[in-house]
Amino acid sequence: MSPSLPKLLLAALVTSCLGCGDEPPPAPAAAPEEFDDPFADDEDPAAEEAPAAAEDPALAAAVPPAAADSDTPALAGSDAPADVDDLQGESGGPSTAEPGSADDGPAVDDAKPRSAGEEAAAPSSKPSKPSKPSTKSIPAPDKPPSPPNAETPPAPAVDEPAAAQPKPTVEAKPAPPAVKEPPPPPPEARFVGTYRFAGGSAQRQRLKDAIDVAVEQLNALIRGVGRRRLNESNQIRDQIDITVNGDKVTTKFTPGGTLTATLGAASIPWTTDTGNKVQAKVKMVKGRLVQDFKSDDGARRSVFTLNESGDTLTLSVTISSDRLPVPVKYALTYKRK
């Protein structure tokens, strides 16, 4: 046996056992069911439209081909339509014969000589139709003379037209002032109120698990620092107070600080209760109140969602950083006080 062969086998054995003790990092924690992200739909790619029926060969084969030479196919066994004049003659339409030929009677041929018997049998002239008596020619019957002592009845009174009668003057009353309906409240007004944490120990444990999973994916040298900073910046607030004054929204966290910002305005500088300098922005997105915080080493997004009855407030938090392989997501439930 070659003296170098045992050395090669020993080196291969050592190399294969180097990674035996290493464990892969845990998978990132899934977002809880109550987590609400109004931007989730915007990140999904748009669904492709279904192909048109004309492009599908199966559908195209099922469509019958159109006639080549004419728009309407000829019916088998049918004759060409009759001429318009023929149709009018068959259907009893107006005739082109001269009027009066049917009423004149048989024509008399003056050139043909007649015998004495025919002249006696033939009428001398065509009997004329009796004319209708005219109503003008019929004399009106004489009215019976009125008795000398009878009084003439008075003529009936003729009503004057309505336009001729004077209308009573009606004093015009001033129209009542129009009642202006108050404008509907802005959507952010629904969030005004005081809310107490109602998630219990279950949500506290889910927050701890989400932080542990994120820390395990960090480098071993910075795991301790990462865990401490995530625990400090993600404390559960026992109470949240939200007030709205015009377009300004104020959020007070207990324990914690107070943030007042204008909806939809540019970011403003703000200092957290842990002393971190951040840029804060507040806006309304799809009926949710959204707060964005950005710093040099990371970002936080807090989304406040109200249920239909307005008595349950859900706070969905997303923590992202360049040092975190995946963002940390958790949700907290609050009840209106």
Fold and architecture overview:
There is one protein chain. This protein has 7 helices and 10 strands. A hairpin with a 2-residue loop joins strand 6 and strand 7. Helix 6 packs antiparallel against helix 7. It is elongated. It is an alpha+beta fold. The protein has a domain of 150 residues: Lipocalin (Beta Barrel), CATH 2.40.128. The chain has a 10-stranded antiparallel sheet.
| Large-scale geometry | elongated
Distance between the termini: 85 Å
**H/E element string?**
HHHHHEHHEEEEEEEEE
- Strand adjacency order, main sheet: 4-3-2-1-10-9-8-7-6-5
- Poorly predicted regions: 44-56, 62-113, 115-125, 133-137
Specify the structural class. Answer: alpha+beta
Helicity level, as a percent range? Answer: 10-25%
Blueprint of the fold:
Layout: H1 4-17, H2 40-43, H3 57-62, H4 84-90, H5 116-121, E1 193-197, H6 200-216, H7 223-233, E2 239-245, E3 248-254, E4 258-262, E5 268-271, E6 277-285, E7 288-294, E8 299-306, E9 312-320, E10 328-336
Antiparallel strand pairs: 1-2, 1-10, 2-3, 3-4, 5-6, 6-7, 7-8, 8-9, 9-10
Identify the notable features of this structure and list them briefly.
10 strands, 337 residues, alpha+beta, 10-stranded antiparallel β-sheet, 21% strand
Short description:
With 337 residues, this protein is an alpha+beta fold. Helices cover 19% and strands 21% of the residues.
